[in-house]
Amino acid sequence: MIMALYRLYPPSEAEMRIRLRRHGRTRRPQPYENLFQVTPTTVKRDSFLMLLSMLFLTYWIICWISIPTRASFGYLFAFISMLTCVLGSSFFVLIQHAVRAGWSVIARRSAEFIMETVSLFAILFLLVVINMKDLYIWTDPSCNFELASIGMFYLNNVFWIIRGIGYFLVWIISSKYICQKSFNQDQAKNDSLSITMQKASYIFLLLYAYTTSFASFDWVMSLQPHWFSSIFGIYFFATCFLTGLASICFIFLLTRVPSNTNHMYDFGKLLFGFTIFWTYIAFSQFMLIWYSDLPEEIGFYTTRSNTEEWWRMSFYLIFFNFIVPFFFLIRKDNKWHYGPIFFMSMWTLFFQFIHIYWLIMPILGEEKWWYSLDCDFSAMMIVMALFIRKIIRSCRKYELYPKNDPFLEESLKCEKIH
Amino acid sequence: MVEKKIHIGDVVFPNIPGERDEFIRGGVSYGDVTNLVCRMPELKLGEEPKWWKIAFGISILGVFLFFSSVFCVIWFGIGMWGNNNPVFWAWDIVNFVFWVGIGHAGTLISAILFLFRQKWRTSINRYAEAMTIFAVICAACFPVFHMGRVWTAHFLAPIPNQMGMWPNFRSPLLWDVFAVSTYFTISLLFWYVGLIPDLATLRDRAKGTLGKKIYGFFSLGWRGSVKDWYIYEKAYLFLAALSTPLVLSVHSVVSFDFATSQLSGWHTTIFPPYFVAGAILSGFAMVQTLIIPARIWLDLKNLITIQHIENMNKVILLTSNMVGYAYGIEFFIAWYSKDLEEFQLFIHRATGWYAWAYWTMVICNVVIPQLFWMRRIRTSIFLTFIMSIAINIGMWFERFVIIVTSLSQGNVPSSWSYYSPRIWDVFLFIGSFGLFFFLFLLFIRFLPVVAMAEVKGVMKGGHCK
């Protein structure tokens, strides 16, 4: 699938020029826009991804019929994992507008493509709603809560669904608004749109902060309804931003928009910084719960460490999500090149997904984490294929970089100070 | 020549996409920057402006108050304070957290904004860093005097001794000692390294022998050669990279003092990031409080323009919303957790004995800063000044609410007790302000308040432009 996406995009104009020069040809390359026109091959890839998704959906349904709870958890994992990329990219886009960032303009469109896929997730959310009885034990009215009244007010089926719809409404409206304005700017140079986007981004950022936190409480934290942690919203945000950054780098590099190594350096620094931020938040939560050792809180960590397999996985998370990226990205030369950044974004995506797996799966209470991995894999393929298909379609439909953005020139000259 | 253009720094320019405003306004040249900044340090002793003399006089009174309260506390013991059972921690720790919090803005401006390539920081970083160092000095006094037996303060450090007595490494109070002292050391180094080129400027311009000697000693033989600059920039970058995690770690460790306990209202996992956001809010508010009069009195309006003030107000708005988020989530989780004691404590905070303090905190920290959504208010110097003081008050009350309400109305109603401060608590707190302003006024008097070399770097034609 990755190769399908990779082959879709011919080299950028700048790269073409270098290649042509190398081969001693004098023919000018095609204009940039023409390289992305719809061709029979790209349409074929489009349907291939759809077909792939449908095939895995069929497989997943077979799993679902035989082991519904396991399959539902697998689906929730896939849904949350890919959604974190979308939310992270949305945060990225909104922050860039809010702070009038110059360096990132060239990469902003890749983030907007990801941001726009949120409407797809609203449809995918339906499967979570259908399976909520298997996922959340509080949906069972006989579930014994210490204080049924509070539990019944917040964690009840109808209110939970209404909240979910609310979050998606906020996300869809804001992403459509911001992306549409940005796409409109491509048609004609209109600087006032930048100001509109900037102003809107403040409000949307505030809304995103709250909706993302509460979505994480509703969809992930409430899997263990007796457990609570006030940092969880920030913890989830850190994961979102990290996967968002990684997916932006990934898409940005695949679309081959002309960029220079300083953009990579900035992305590398952000990945580095947010890897540390994620660790800081994860550590804060762990440290405070472990130190106080209160029975109502410790459940989160005992679930993830009471069998040897889960304990091992918890330990590996520290290694793969912090130690490896930390020592990899601390080096200047690794941040300055396309290859290492591409590699690190894949790495971060993969291991953050494993982290989300670690957040969701232990609730099932299975001893080993590798039982029925096919459920998770098929669910992941459904979501990922649809996600990439949507991005490919956006790539074809719109410009690959905001060509009329007033800060574009500044972005192309992205400077290197330290 | 400079005086004629002095008000250009106050002009608010429209937001034009794709254009960046000049950080230094009024056609100020490199020479003008040096002259403006060096004016105060080059005055002869006794020639200081009237405002400085009055402020210095008051701050000396404050220092006197501080040391006399310290003397009383050491001589008679901490029974002089209003602390009672169960409110064992009160103003002493409130003031400690308050001052440490204020110390956050300096390093944030100088390190994090440096790594984010925010060039506007150059006009205000020196000022904020100095504030950081003096605030941390004030902060460190409180836990030390709270020990009661100050002469055993060295027990805090893990000094090998024949009795085999070691501090309790598992205690967050000890982590605090390490965190704050590391932060202080790195901030001081960072501040000093940044000062070196400017000290050399002062040395070269000094007319008296004493000035030449002292500035010469501290400028470490700076000659302004390429090699000097190369080493300087490397060192600056390293220190910035070292200080960045410290901005987060110090207040996180301070929050551990509370959050590692099992007390309702103290033990909640959001504390580390929440404390850091609050610290940045209070730090920026304090920078505003100090910089607004200084830019007028020191004629620095073209170096510290309205744009700097607006940018800082934006950071205040952001961190105020973060703090607001934390207040809300804390309350929500107390309810969601179905933990009766925790939720009851929050109800007490909002409606109990200290409801006045709680609502002062909410209004000053969350409600008032929302006015900064309006650009007209963000760019109003007078309102910014008033609001920054309100936020300072609000942030002090935040620590008061966290510490005192949790202790005074804990889980066992039979041991509830109302806390009110005694006069020595108040004296010590006011005295700490005296100490802070005393150090700060000395800094303004003898050192360059704006990083001249860095400002010149981001001016038109500068090497960082």
Instruction: Count every helix of chain B, treating DSSP H or I runs of 4 or more residues as helices.
Output: 16
- By secondary-structure content and strand pairing, the structural class of chain A works out as mainly alpha
Counting DSSP E segments of at least 2 residues, the number of strands of chain A comes to: 0
Low-pLDDT regions of chain A:
2-11, 19-38
- Report the radius of gyration of chain B as a whole number of Å: 23 Å
Number of domains of chain A: 1
Q: Please give the largest β-sheet of chain A.
A: none
Protein architecture, described:
The complex is a heterodimer of chains A (about 425) and B (about 475). Chain A has one domain (about 35-410). Helices cover about 75% and strands about 0% of the residues of chain A. Chain A has helices spanning about 1-10, 15-20, 40-65, 70-100, 105-115, 120-130, 130-135, 150-155, 155-185, 190-220, 230-255, 260-290, 295-305, 310-330, 330-335, 340-360, 375-395, 410. Chain B has one domain (about 5-160, about 165-460): Up-down Bundle (Formate dehydrogenase/DMSO reductase fold), CATH 1.20.1630.10. Chain B has 16 helices and no strands. Chain B has helices at about 30-40, 50-75, 90-100, 105-115, 125-145, 170-205, 210-220, 225-260, 270-295, 305-335, 340-350, 355-365, 375-380, 380-410, 425-445, 450-460. Chain B is globular, with a radius of gyration of 23 Å. Residues about 1-5 of chain B have low confidence and may be disordered. The chains are: A mainly alpha (about 425), B mainly alpha (about 475). At the A-B interface, helix 8, helix 10, helix 11 and helix 12 of A face helix 8, helix 9 and helix 10 of B.
Give a short overview.
The complex is a heterodimer of chains A (418) and B (465). Chain A has one domain. Chain A is built from 18 helices and no strands.
